[in-house]
């Protein structure tokens, strides 16, 4: 049609007289549509089998062509003025609601979408455009499985795109259904009134042309939205949000996905005023949170690997904060927390696994703050050894030492995921808050300049003469007095050697197999340490621990419930299932990677002078080794069985049940964990310059 109109008008330009009147054609098409309702008596013929779709297409083509021919920028042509003044969109909206002829609503949605997308003149500011747009939105998104879902999501896509281009439109489109001081006569009619058709005199198609000097000017000038009711009133009926939320529930995957994308686009509007309106005067945040809760409750009992709850950040803090608070209140507190504290093991297991998956997908800083506050509490409280599980965090730490190994493993994974999030309060609440003050270090004597002045391992309160087996003593003693670098600092090589030599030779099997060397751990530790260092860099951590005052009296030290649980679990490594041991050591490795001097000292310094009654990670490992040496005496053919178990774990030989299998698997994990700790210490404090130039030492020696 546009090409034919163009050809005709090009010919008319040469004659300097138009051979076709666009307004006349436009009015004629509209008149034919309205006459159908006056003259037709067949109520069963579908709309697509009438000439209504063709007439609407011709009207749209005329509007688009007219706009292209306009010389004055921003001016509305006669056909567009006619559409606005005669409330054609209002009439079409009423026809769509009546769904007469059948399928008319689909035609109306298509016409609105194409009109708003193809006409460049700003339309949504006009009262006679944004009011029928609001009414049309209320017709869709309410009934799942509607025949017009495809057209509805296309319509909302156009609206969200327009709002993104001009955020000021948000207040026009999100206007509520209930308005203050709205006149009764302006309410949507339930049937099509005869005068609404605006049928012109057939002999004078210009008889209803716009009159700019009369009341028609109100429809032709942009109008602000009517005054909104106070929150809790009409705002609850805002319908672009509710329409999108309804479409998100569609069983048609493409429709639901497009609706979710439109919702994301809407909440990413780069306008402070629009974002404030979205948060304060629309049900957006509660609706999104409620939809998220419904998705959570619709998940199967056991979470599948393909089901994810993805959280993303939004451009404006005001939207992000409000949405995060709504999600925290509705999903975290009202749904997840009762499940996490439930007596049913299945409920605890499922909710913990889903929460871990959510944390893994979480990208929004605002939602991360809410998640941290939910898990760790709003205010840090110093914990005492005899404190009961008063907070959710304390309950979760207790779940890490649950009678159910599956719950313990799942909850440990939750904490491991939490430790990888860029929020300082996580590591401070779980670990650093208890290490500050260095009360785990013995007072009363000055700190040594080097490790030459430190005590032997046998002086550790957990490492007594009676505890040691004679065959273990040569391997348990720390190496000769460590060397110091030129700057006077202790060489890290001594720390590395301490961990590598901790497991006695008769309990080592990695040397007999390939691809289990220490250098592999160095490579992996380097990448993880760089990642962790980048994440914590903005937190401004000190480079070294605060010097101790030798005259300060000793005070009781408590490592905190989290470290105590990990140390207790580590002390039982020879008695626990293989998968549980892997998860415990994985969490401890994550902790050791943090570049904080107190963490390095407490977890990776074998030569620390511990205060009486205190334990460190190294002292726990020493006790485990002592226990191992006693157990070895009771296992016949221990070296051969140990090597067989390692080959089974690596998949080199078929798995078969052996006596003492849990013990043997624990020994393998213990050896690998000591190598991993040595590698972490090596990359955190390299003996020779930058990390990039490290050459990993031979296994067992530095």
UniProtKB/TrEMBL annotation:
Domain FHF complex subunit HOOK-interacting protein C-terminal as annotated: residue spans: 559-651
Annotated TM spans: none
Biased composition (Basic and acidic residues): 200-211
Region feature (Disordered): 181-235
Family: Belongs to the FHIP family.
Cited PANTHER family: FHF COMPLEX SUBUNIT HOOK-INTERACTING PROTEIN 2B (PTHR21705:SF9), RAI16 PROTEIN-RELATED (PTHR21705)
Name this protein carries in UniProt: FHF complex subunit HOOK-interacting protein C-terminal domain-containing protein
């Amino acid at each position: 049609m546009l090409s034919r109109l163009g050809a005709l008008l090009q010919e008319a330009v040469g004659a300097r007289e138009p051979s076709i009147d666009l307004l006349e054609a436009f009015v004629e098409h509209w008149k034919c549509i309205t006459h159908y309702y006056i003259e037709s008596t067949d109520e069963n013929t579908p709309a697509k089998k009438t000439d209504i779709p063709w007439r609407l297409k011709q009207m749209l083509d005329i509007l688009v062509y007219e706009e292209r021919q306009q010389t004055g920028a921003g001016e509305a042509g006669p056909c567009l003025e006619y559409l606005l003044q005669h409330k054609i969109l209002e009439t079409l909206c009423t026809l769509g609601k009546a769904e007469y002829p059948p399928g008319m609503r689909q035609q109306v949605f298509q016409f609105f979408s194409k009109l708003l997308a193809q006409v460049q003149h700003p339309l949504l500011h006009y009262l006679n455009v944004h009011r029928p747009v609001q009414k049309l939105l209320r017709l869709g998104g309410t009934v799942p499985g509607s025949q017009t879902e495809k057209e509805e999501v296309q319509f909302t896509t156009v609206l969200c795109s327009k709002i993104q281009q001009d955020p000021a439109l948000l207040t026009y489109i999100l206007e509520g259904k209930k308005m203050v001081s709205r006149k009764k006569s302006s309410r949507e009619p339930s049937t099509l009134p005869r005068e609404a058709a605006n049928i012109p005199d057939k002999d004078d198609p210009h008889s209803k042309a716009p009159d700019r000097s009369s009341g028609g000017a109100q429809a032709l000038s942009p109008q602000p939205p009517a005054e909104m009711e106070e929150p809790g009133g009409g705002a609850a009926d805002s319908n672009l949000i509710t329409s999108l939320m309804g479409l998100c529930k569609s069983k048609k995957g493409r429709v639901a996905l497009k609706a979710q994308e439109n919702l994301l686009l809407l909440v990413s509007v780069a306008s402070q005023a629009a974002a404030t309106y979205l948060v304060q005067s629309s049900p957006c945040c509660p609706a999104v949170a409620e939809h998220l809760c419904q998705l959570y409750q619709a998940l199967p009992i056991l979470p599948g690997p393909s089901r994810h709850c993805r959280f993303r950040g939004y451009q404006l803090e005001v939207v992000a904060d409000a949405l995060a608070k709504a999600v925290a209140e509705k999903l975290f507190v009202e749904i997840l927390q009762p499940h996490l504290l439930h007596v049913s093991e299945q409920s605890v297991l499922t909710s913990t696994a889903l929460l871990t998956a959510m944390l893994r997908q979480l990208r929004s800083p605002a939602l991360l703050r809410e998640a941290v506050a939910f898990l760790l509490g709003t205010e840090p409280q110093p914990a005492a050894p005899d404190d009961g599980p008063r907070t959710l965090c304390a309950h979760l730490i207790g779940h890490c030492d649950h009678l159910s190994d599956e719950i313990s493993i799942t909850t440990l994974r939750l904490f491991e995921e939490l430790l990888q999030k860029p929020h300082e309060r996580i590591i401070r609440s779980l670990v650093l808050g208890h290490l500050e003050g260095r009360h785990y270090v013995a007072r009363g004597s000055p700190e040594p300049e080097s490790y030459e002045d430190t005590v032997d391992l046998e002086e550790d309160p957990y490492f007594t003469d009676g505890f040691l087996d004679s065959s273990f003593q040569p391997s348990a003693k720390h190496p000769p007095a460590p060397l110091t670098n030129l700057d006077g600092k202790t060489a890290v090589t001594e720390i590395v050697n301490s961990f590598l030599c901790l497991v006695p030779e008769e309990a080592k099997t990695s040397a007999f197999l390939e691809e289990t060397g220490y250098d592999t751990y160095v490579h992996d530790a380097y990448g993880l340490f760089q990642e962790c260092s980048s994440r914590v860099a903005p937190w401004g951590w000190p480079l070294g621990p605060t010097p101790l005052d030798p005259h300060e009296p000793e005070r009781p030290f408590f490592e905190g419930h989290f470290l105590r649980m990990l140390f207790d679990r580590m002390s039982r490594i020879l008695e626990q299932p293989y998968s549980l041991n892997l998860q415990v050591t994985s969490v401890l490795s994550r902790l050791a990677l943090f570049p904080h001097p107190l963490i390095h000292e407490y977890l990776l310094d074998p030569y620390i002078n511990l205060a009486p009654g205190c334990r460190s990670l190294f002292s726990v490992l020493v006790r485990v080794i002592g226990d191992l040496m006693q157990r070895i005496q009771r296992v016949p053919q221990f070296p051969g069985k140990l090597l067989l178990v390692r080959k089974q774990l690596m998949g080199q030989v078929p798995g078969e049940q052996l006596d003492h299998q849990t013990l043997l698997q624990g020994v393998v994990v213990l050896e690998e964990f000591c190598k991993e700790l040595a590698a972490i210490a090596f990359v955190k404090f390299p003996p020779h310059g930058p990390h990039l130039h490290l050459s990993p030492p031979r296994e067992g020696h530095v």
